[in-house]
Amino acid sequence: MSGDSAGSSAPIRTLGILGAGKVGTVLARRALEAGYEVLISGSGDPAAIALITSVLAPGARAVRPEEAAREADAVILALPLGRFRELPVEALRGTLVIDAMNHWWETDGASEELGGPAASTSELVQEHLAGARVVKALNHMGYHDLDERALPAGDPDRLAIAIAGAPDDADRAARLIDALGFDPLVIGDLRSGVRLQPFAGAFGAATDREGLARIIEEFPRTERGREVLAALEPAALEPAAGGNGSMDA
Amino acid sequence: MDRITLGVDTFGDVMVDEKGRPLGEAASLRHVLEEGIVADQTGLDVFAVGEHHRDDYAISAPETLLAGLATRTQGIHLSSAVTVLSSDDPVRVYQRFATVDALSDGRAEVILGRGSFTESFPLFGYSLEDYEVLFEEKLGMWIELMKEQPVTWSGSTRPGLQDAQVYPRTDHEGGIPTWIGVGGSPQSVVRAAAHGLPLMLAIIGGEPQRFAPYVDLFHRAADQLGVARQRVGMHSHGHIAATDEQALEEYWPAYRAHNARLGAERGWPAMTKEHFLQEVEHGALYVGSPRTVAEKMVRNIRALDVQRFDFIYTAGQNLPSLRRQSVELYGSQVVPMVREMLADSERSGEDTAS
């Protein structure tokens, strides 16, 4: 169910996962354990991922990407970032879309658009998916940690996952992250997702909410942070230099 | 189960002297040669060397090094780990390994992989955009070459062949023994099964038992495709010393620097000591006394049901003496313990199964 208005508040029961690689299959397992119904898709014909799904995420249903997009209450993007322009725009209109993708040369080729300092990749995804409600989350934690270190709420060793996006969408994603076994940390608008990309301090971070918040606040004062913020918006450097701790990039 | 294959593996990291000064590539290569001889003397099954084209690794031409070793070793199998087939010519690679095979009297092996570094692509004039198609096409050609019959092949990444016989042929039935190295992509595992070749899993982080479903996937893919099930191996990093404390102390500084450098290139943060110890305790690193390493190997060999384990005895700039120590202890102490423990658990497994 992904109607424009209902989609923004309805509870998530069915989760679509686009991408049946390392990350997609790990997230599918997590979601199944958390009690979601899971639809998973590869690049096309579900027969191509039927075996992978039945072995690595038993219980998930392998479908075409359009079907996962249309039928799920929320969708996680776990395909190679370089293929984001193949995502079904119409089927995702109004749907909460959680962008867990990162630029990797192995799958995307070397790309300035996706890997340069001015790349805010979730904003590129949002531009393509006009009408979808894109947030960035689940991209900064390695798939081993996603797989191995989910814990119930309240556990002192629970790790945090940062979320960047519009407030309502981020809150909805936060409930999902919590259900998957991690403490959600909403950090700001979609652009603040640059603080979660490769080369930012939070990338690869597997730590608790406080620790993650600290790393993300540090971003403007890091070398990469200065480079990224200058490339995105030269003026953004100035408030950061004052160290006001603003979480918006 | 059949006798497990136990080997060692290095990427030929450039070494340092006691004062931390780099020894240079040529001297590092000579040390690797000596390590291969030690590995052979301790009775190990395989000595495997990686291919890289960067300033931190000395080995760019594994088969040339293996040719040197072929004439100075007796029983050990000599393998690449991995050969970056995507950026090489399968015909030339096959010829070179067939030559090593001749010199070693049938001991050459290959692990083919996509490689996890970029440098070989621009160096040999290939585009990273073609990363997938280069590997798949050239692997297909390689499988034709393994038959050692006249090859007819066409593709988009290399001129085609028409009834071309490639020389030298080996004395092996089925050509040069070939494995496929994969990182953790389920699609790669399924493709390897489809090619009917054994699978080498690179397990370099996280809990090894998490890879058990991949082994299951590999076998079930073979069943579904109606091809014979093939062997599975794993390779992982580690270091061995007289005590756990000594091993950790000797390994961590070079490993940390190595990991930090890779992280800086790829965008992940430097590893903390805590994370390192976590990897040693529960993860993919085999660092400790011979007994600690042997027990961990046995645990994971059984958990994953693999038929081969290659121990990567180097990571980063280390002293030749420490590398050699690791190979010696692995061959002379760890391997006998692993074989004994596996035989014991096999026996007790038979008892309880009845």
TrEMBL record, chain A:
<keyword id="KW-0560">Oxidoreductase</keyword>
<dbReference type="Pfam" id="PF03807">
    <property type="entry name" value="F420_oxidored"/>
</dbReference>
<dbReference type="InterPro" id="IPR036291">
    <property type="entry name" value="NAD(P)-bd_dom_sf"/>
</dbReference>
<feature type="domain" description="Pyrroline-5-carboxylate reductase catalytic N-terminal">
    <location>
        <begin position="15"/>
        <end position="103"/>
    </location>
</feature>
<protein>
    <submittedName>
        <fullName>NAD(P)-binding domain-containing protein</fullName>
    </submittedName>
</protein>
<dbReference type="InterPro" id="IPR028939">
    <property type="entry name" value="P5C_Rdtase_cat_N"/>
</dbReference>
<dbReference type="InterPro" id="IPR051267">
    <property type="entry name" value="STEAP_metalloreductase"/>
</dbReference>
UniProtKB/TrEMBL annotation, chain B:
<dbReference type="InterPro" id="IPR036661">
    <property type="entry name" value="Luciferase-like_sf"/>
</dbReference>
<protein>
    <submittedName>
        <fullName>LLM class flavin-dependent oxidoreductase</fullName>
    </submittedName>
</protein>
<keyword id="KW-0503">Monooxygenase</keyword>
<dbReference type="InterPro" id="IPR011251">
    <property type="entry name" value="Luciferase-like_dom"/>
</dbReference>
<dbReference type="Pfam" id="PF00296">
    <property type="entry name" value="Bac_luciferase"/>
</dbReference>
<feature type="domain" description="Luciferase-like">
    <location>
        <begin position="22"/>
        <end position="299"/>
    </location>
</feature>
<keyword id="KW-0560">Oxidoreductase</keyword>
<dbReference type="InterPro" id="IPR050766">
    <property type="entry name" value="Bact_Lucif_Oxidored"/>
</dbReference>
<dbReference type="InterPro" id="IPR022290">
    <property type="entry name" value="LLM_Atu2307-like"/>
</dbReference>
